[in-house]
Amino acid sequence: MNLSGTHARRRSAGGRSALSALGMIALSITVLLASERPADAAYAQIEGSGSTWSKLIVDQWISDVSANGIKVVFTGNGSSAGRRAFAAGTSDFGITEVPYQGSGAQGGDDPPPKNRSFAYLPIVAGGTAFTYQVRVNGKQVKNLRLSGETIAKIFTNKITNWNDPAITKDNNGTKLPSLQIIPVHRSDGSGTTAQFTTWLNSEYSSLWKPFFGRSGITSYYPSKGRSIGANGSDQVMNTISAAQGNGTIGYVEYAYPVRKSYPVVKVLNKAGYFVEPTQYNVAVALTKARLNQDLTQNLTGVYRGDDSRTYPLSSYSYMLLPTGAKDKRMSTSRRQSLADFMFYSLCEGQSKAGKFGYSPLPLNLVQAGFDQLGKLKKADKNVNLENRSVTQCNNPTFVAGNLKANKLAQVAPKPADCDKLGAGPCTTGTGAAPTSVSDAKNGGGAAGGTGPDGGDDAASGGAEVDPDTGLPVGSAAQGGGAASVAVQTELVAGRAGDDKVFGALAVAELLAIVVAPGLVAVYLSRRTRRRTGTPA
Amino acid sequence: MSRRRIALLLGVLVVATFVTSSTVTAAGDDVGAFSQKKTVTRENVDAFGNASTVDSQDVTLEVDHTKNLQGRERVQVSWSGARASAGRATNPYGENGLAQEYPMVILQCRGRDDSSLSAGKRLSPETCWTSSRQQRSQVADTSAAVWRLDPFATEADRGQVSGVSKVPAGCSSPGADSSLHLTPFKAANGKVYPACSNDTMPPEAAIDGAFPPAEQAAYTGVDGKGETSFEVRSSIENESLGCNESTPCSIVAVPIMGTSCARGTGDLADTNGPCRAKGQFAPGSSNFSGLGVDDAVSPLYWWAESNWRNRISVPITFGASPNVCNVLDSRAPVGFYGTELMSQAALQWAPAYCLRKDRFRFQHNVQPDQASFTLMEQKEAPGAFVSGAQEDAGEDNGSPEYAPTAVTGFAVSYVMDRPDNAGEDSDLKLNARLIAKLLTQSYPASAFGKDHPGLGDNPLSINQDPEFKALNPGLDSIAREAAAVIMSLSESSDVVKAISQYIATDPEASAFIAGKADPWGMTVNPSYKDISLPVSEWPLLDEFIPVMKDDCLKANNDTPYLPRLAAPVTSFRKIAEAVLDAWPLAQTRCTGIGTDLSPYVLGRSERQGVGARMLLGVTTLGDAERFGLRTASLQTSQIPPGGTFSSAAGRTFVGPTRAGMAAAVKTAEQAKRGAPFTLDMEKVRRSKGAYPGTLIVYTAARTAGLEKSTARTVAGFVRTATTEGQRPGSGNGFLPSGYLPITRAGTTAALFTSAQQVAADIEGQVGETATQAPADTSAGIGGPGTDALTDAAATGDDAATDDAPKQATSDQLESLGSTASLTSTLAAWALPLLVLLGLAAGLAGPAMRVLAARRRLR
Q1: pLDDT tens across A376-391, in order?
Q2: With an 8 Å Cβ cutoff, are A56 and B570 in contact?
Q3: Does residue B816 have a pLDDT over 90?
């Protein structure tokens, strides 16, 4: 028998004690030098699966936190699969657009976990966009607009040709050539489908119910007529943008067409404007969301929002967070990974949402999310949540000092006049994810600014907001005629104490300015006296 | 006088905060290569009590490196002198590898095989990781429970219930005629998992976990040799196993010789009984259909003492995990946007920035090249990572310049098994015509595509193509859907542009696309004939809808077949993982039974079985190196279309090596200061040693109109990235594999010089001061063709696009908005910063007074 292996072992065993002694010294030096490093806040890898709706921004966050040593693995296999894996206890977290639907849902039951406590944690907002390929003489149409009713009729096979009078009317008389409409739906269990059918069920139940066979929502879109099923948001985009895709229209989160510079439908809102799901219009729309006690969303107010900037199909995406003290998959280091992954994503990670085709969460929802993260600490006292608060977020979309306000909703420009029902259509393209107010405005059709009202000076009306109330100051009456103001997202459970955080911080800083110099002066002069022997 | 003192004092304060932490240096020379030889045996005792060695082998096991490993790192394990395996499984990992005979079981175990260590630090089957309970615990009819006759086992281990003193709660007791053996798993935190059911396994062993199992029952060829790469897991990936810097671990290889058998009674001990079984399959054979094997010679009983005693243990050490950024770091991040080619470098670079107080928090946001460039020009991002010249977004673009930041590129990554279990192909050669055939979907893939007009006579997949066979002899010819396409990107990218340039500059490939058949008569898919190249985004042009005979496909409504096969995705990373897992992205697998509750659904194909894998994908070189993927050599010689050929002779192929990239960089030219270098594909190919997939990644930034602090940050980044960031290594701040270092001297010197010039230009903001963009910028946004809807309405009303000048009233709002992400960050910091400054000044006041006082006293 060859013993070289044994020799090697001995050597390394002998050398190890010396090495480890050195290591201890090195370690203590490192600790002294790199006080920045969390005291071995050992992170363990966490795994999750679910939504492709929010995957593009979640993937970026995962790549961002890897610099912090947090390893996250996420598989975008659809919300339904994500909920299932979480309920079965085979994942550490799930991401989904809709809560557990219970038994009897199409495509199999969707019962909540039996033996797993969890919380819904909103992670990002966005708009479910309708992207399409319609060519006229070979040229791609990029400024299509549709009313909700037309969309509902398209996806329930009531409108089947692009030359339909309803579509012509939506586009203010501009008629498309005869071309069969091919709706593209998700073939897998999808939160995007659930979001879309929630809207259909709520707003166009008379069309949806006979098509679906009953009322209610589904994660598995019924495949009927000419429609095509595609697996995951990537494949919906592939199907629509392929050469064969002329005439197709499908639903995906806005980020997908943005990544491909593909056009999206401007959807008619209750104020009479056709708008695109930019981060601004989504933010405005979601000021009308009502959140239940468990933070799940009630979007009826969003669908019917009467602000001229409202994008009606706006919604939040959620993480399923394991909160049980005895959760089988959880350990301190996994909880710490979850906590810090979300601390980053909810806080600073929101600031890049717009560039990716999403919309940042308003600050009060971030705070509500932090409260959910607090349950991790409750489950395991060794989880470190110190100094992780909303005051830490490097996030320009938050309004400092006003938890309830949403800056984007405040500065969101009004739609151009050519986007108004009965005017236009604007000739500018869509799907560019404007990240500045001016772009959002131009994208909305500055080039077509020759509508009856002329001028766009009213756009600045939304910028001035009372810092206390979050309400616009003397905001001009807007296009739709209705009182259209951006108000805060109201949480059902009131959170009166939130502002204290900022108040306390301000007071502490002020006190420090006033008191600290004096204290230092006293301390230093005392020390000097001691050293120099000068009597006190 | 005193003012200068204060300045001095503040200066000292600032310098004092610049203390940096030490960075982890690259691994030393000693990688800990391991080799050990051991005689392994199977020894039976017959009915008369005569012991005999029925099989003996001298196994030598080698591992290429064992020291300073990181989680998910792969080590190469090879052996010789082992008994030939039989009945190869399609998948040797985890429980899938159980239906094989005489394999080499390779496991990762916590602890060391050293009798001088205390029991808690020694390894045992209970500290060895398996991803399923089937690999640990067995219930069998006593007449088949071969472990109960193991002559090397203790008396207790031969009882009806063994491995545990009594049946643990949550596990069921064996019936009267059955025997139970449990191999509980001892987690690093001391918790013991009985491992009798899925629910009593550690959490990392979840079914469908994110990572496939690492432990495997590897195959030994008829020559007694075998080789495999083994992925180690650290405590970050597998907390229960818990291997890290301070917890020593081992790789344990158990050559399965078959369980030894003692004298006994009944069927179990029979001469032809299960205990002495010698296998159902012939050496070198396969068992792809998963038929039953003789348990006694299968990996099922790796833990039985007669197998376990034959083990070879390889001590491994894990490196210190590199220092990482603190989530509580309150500095605002500086987010660069751009190409995924930078991802692996950015991952290693980020901590080198955040860990230093005099630097900043670096972030890389992956977005397509052109989109990122536009964000940069609009001041939405301080810099963009692009791999070539981009179009300017508008007139107020700040005269951007391009600083060379990394040399890397794309790879055609692949996994291909040679037939008859002869191992993986490691020398794939591709020419531009083969890549063109894959991208243009000219292989019909299956019977569905056969009906495609113009494709009927083409080979079904690449491995049936005589051209491929000529360049890559010795692979099988079994048609596969996955081998008819190359996995690629769905969105715009300079990588796609480079690939299409490679095709366009190749005489054979461009003739093929123009409609000329290859020498064997294969023609281009008519949908892609004469496609104009290069393109930044590869289009899905095929429209053929096969006549579906299959109910499931019919139910999915006449969708084109080939685009579903191509199924491009939004990130290269996803492709790299698909190659790693041999899991095609093709969306052609049908599930469901056609009812309302379970409709027919088309989804992703199944993973390919080991031994029959054949999959190609475009990946970044960084990902290919990170995941240890094999990469193809690409033909550089330009050969006019001619007759058939039967070998690679006369053609030059270059792989993605550093030398290959350096040769490509050598051909690069720069038109003027600050401009990107041109990597002309013609020149690259004429220089025979240059790798055609080479790309230079630039940091593009404005040289006018940037705020001073931002300009300084970007310039500083370029300087750091092109000096410190170019040291090859795996630690924080080092340049990972897959990138060619840019250096002050040598081939890349011109890139280095250019980077320093651009850094100076950015810092000095020397570019032409931007003129206020004319009012009609918006007219350019849509570009021609965006107004087709208006065009269509020839009789349209007043949709005339009147470029009304911007109104003065909107200026304020616009300037606020267009710089929102940058200025407001500053604004957000201005107040606290001022407060802190005030505080510092306040503190400095008394301090100065005291200093002055002390001085006076002296």
Answers
A1: 999 999 999 988 888 7
A2: yes
A3: no
B326 inside domain: no
**Residue written as token pair 């020291």:** B67
**End-of-domain residue from the set B316, B344, B366:** B316
**Given A355, A387, A525, which is nearest B850 (Cβ)?**
A525
For residue range B135-164, list pLDDT tens digits in order: 999 999 988 899 999 999 998 999 999 999
**Is the residue at B64 inside a domain?**
yes
Q: Is the pLDDT of residue A495 over 70?
A: no
Inter-chain touch A242–B799, beta carbons under 8 Å: no
Q: Which of chain B's residues have a Cβ under 8 Å away from the Cβ of A439? A: 378, 817-818
Q: Is B685 inside any structural domain?
A: no
| Interface contact B355-A142, CB threshold 8 A | no
* B170 contact A CB<8A: no
Contacting residues of B for A509, CB less than 8 Å apart: 832, 835
How far apart CA A164 and CA A177 sit, in angstroms, is 9
Q: What is the mean pLDDT of chain A?
A: 77
Q: Are B636 and B525 members of one domain?
A: yes
Angle at A435 (CA atoms; ends A433, A440), nearest 5 degrees: 75
Contacts of B354 in chain A (CB under 8 A): 67
Chain A residues in contact with B330 by the CB 8 A cut-off are 392, 394
Rounded CA-CA distance B396/B376 in Å is 11
Sequence letter at residue A188: D
Residues in CB range of B39: below 8 A, 6 or more apart: A1, B56, B57, B58, B59
Helical (H) or strand (E) element with A239: helix A232-241
Q: Which of B637, B661, B685 is the last residue of a domain?
A: B661
So what's the pLDDT on residue B237?
87
**Six-digit token string for A213:** 């066979």
Check whether the bond before A425 is cis (ω within 30° of 0).
Answer: yes
> From the centroid of its chain, how far is CA B380?
30
Question: How many other CB atoms are found less than 10 A from the CB of residue A304?
Answer: 14
Q: Note the pLDDT of residue A524.
A: 61
Q: Does B787 touch chain A (CB under 8 A)?
A: yes
How much is the ipTM here?
0.76
One-character DSSP codes across B57-88: EEEEEEES--SSB-TT-EEEEEEESPPPPBSB
> Which of B813, B824, B851 should be substituted to probe chain A, the one whose Cβ sees the most A Cβ atoms within 10 Å?
B813
Domain total in chain B = 3
Write the DSSP symbol of residue B34: E
Residue B295 and residue B421 in one domain:
no
- Residue B450, domain extent: 410-661
- 551-610 in chain B: CB under 8 A from chain A: 555-560, 563-564, 566-571, 587, 596-599, 601-604
Q: Do B792 and A442 touch (CB under 8 A)?
A: no
Pairwise CB contact (< 8 Å): B351 & A44? no
Name the DSSP letter for residue A112: P
Distance from the Cα of A231 to chain B's closest Cα (Å) equals: 6
Q: Which region among A336-350, A382-396, B399-413 has the lowest average model confidence (pLDDT)?
A: A382-396
pLDDT tens-digit series, residues B459-498: 999 999 999 999 999 999 999 999 999 999 998 999 999 9
Chain B hits for A66, Cβ within 8 Å: 347, 350
User: Which of helix, strand or coil describes residue A446?
Assistant: helix
Put simply, whether B33 touches A (Cβ < 8 Å) is no
Give the global pTM. 0.77
B451 three-class SS? coil
Same domain, B295 and B420: no
Helix, strand, coil fractions of chain A, as percent rounded to 5: 40, 15, 45
- The reply to whether B255 falls in a domain is yes
For residue B286, CA distances in Å to A490, A498, B89, B105, B477 come to: 64, 66, 7, 17, 17
